Amino acid sequence: MATRIIQPPAARAPSRQRVPTWRQALTERIDDQWDLVREVGADRREHLSSNATYVLADAVQFLAELPPNSIHAVVTDPPYGVIEYEQKDHQKLRSGRGGVWRIPPSFDGAKRSPLPRFTVLSEEELTKLHSFFSAIAYGIHRALVPGGHAFVAANPLLSTMTFHAFQSAGLEKRGEVIRLVTTLRGGDRPKGAEKEFSDVSMMARSGWEPWGIFRKPMIGTAAANLKAWGTGGLRRISADEPFRDVIPCSPTRGREREIAPHPSLKPQRFMRQLVRAALPLGVGIIYDPFAGSGSTLAAAEAIGYRAIGTDRDVEYFGIATRAFPALSRLAIVQ
Question: If exposure means fewest CB atoms within 10 Å of the residue's CB, which of 113, 121, 171, 262 is most exposed?
């Protein structure tokens, strides 16, 4: 399709009836952007609501089809490191037979979620992973409006490499959100010699999850960029409290996981905080390149934001389509 470059509000001819304020002009322009963005490409899609669209598409390809300067924020939990979602390993996950996925046994009557074993990645797979994130990062840089933020989930083992790919693509590192969460990752004794080395753990038990915060460079001052694009900063929690970079949040459990059974499902309690912060003026379009079972889309719907997501897995596309109404209406306690 022909590339359509969306210009800042100043490039639009003013109405003859009245000159709109910058906020009115911004809102009208975002309305136009939304009508365009949610119909990009010829891939199968579901319009989950007037504010949410899910497209069954490859993220790199979809980013290439998006017009430049058309997305206001990205919130995503990417596949680490791609290989766990390749067909051979993903099929092993679904059949409960492992592969790169560690399938934990039931414990205390509870069935724990599987976790990908990132420590088994080879040098070749790590190089492939870096190339993959570089392609994603360059696509995000192109699609984001100036000042637009990207929140990108990582893990302590691979965050340095992943975040470097985003910075190399021209996105500014603006810190990290640390999700404090107790997991089963790490802390295990030597495999096959657990009794012999009962006092040894092969790595520290993880109690946190890093989310990189990146921003496309602004044009002009912060105030000018906010007026022109609606981006540049983060939405405050309240007039007296800024958005903070440490968020305690337990793993997804119970009713939420029943609604959207995805192995990497992030809880609405956490996602709604990130999504809300991503649009400083409360207007714009959120994009999730790896939408999975739709947690980002549901979080945006709950807040009243517009959001579009992509995923190439038809099973997760179906899960998200079914889960979206209940997930977005889920009552949470902050």
Answer: 113
On the 0-12 / 13-18 / 19+ scale of CB atoms within 10 A, 326 is: middle
Q: What is the C-alpha to C-alpha distance for residues 52 and 307, in angstroms, rounded to an integer? A: 5
Question: Rounded CA gap, 293 and 268, in Å?
Answer: 12
Question: Is the model's pTM score more than 0.70?
Answer: yes
Within a domain: 103:
yes
Model pLDDT for residues 51-71, shown as the tens digit of each residue: 999 999 999 999 999 999 999
The whole-angstrom separation of Cα 187 and Cα 201 is: 5
Q: Please give the residue range of the domain that contains residue 75.
A: 19-329
Sign of CA dihedral 254, 255, 257, 258: positive
The answer to whether position 42 is within a domain reads yes
Domain total of the chain: 1
Nearest in space to 226 (alpha carbons), one of 35, 9, 11:
9
What CATH number does residue 39 fall under?
Answer: 3.40.50.150
CB 125 within 8 A of CB 79: no
Peptide bond before residue 81 is cis, with ω within 30 degrees of 0: yes
DSSP 8-state class, residue 107? B
E strand or H helix that includes residue 132:
helix 123-143
Nearest to 161 by CA among 114, 207, 128: 128
Encode burial over 87-121: b for 16+ CB neighbours within 10 A, e otherwise.
eebbebbeeeeebbbbbeeeeeeeeebbbbebeeb
pLDDT tens track for 143-192: 999 999 999 999 998 999 999 999 999 999 999 999 999 876 788 899 88
Q: How far is CA 21 from CA 44, 129, 141, in A?
A: 38, 45, 28
- Domain presence at residue 184: yes
pLDDT given for residue 105 in this prediction = 47
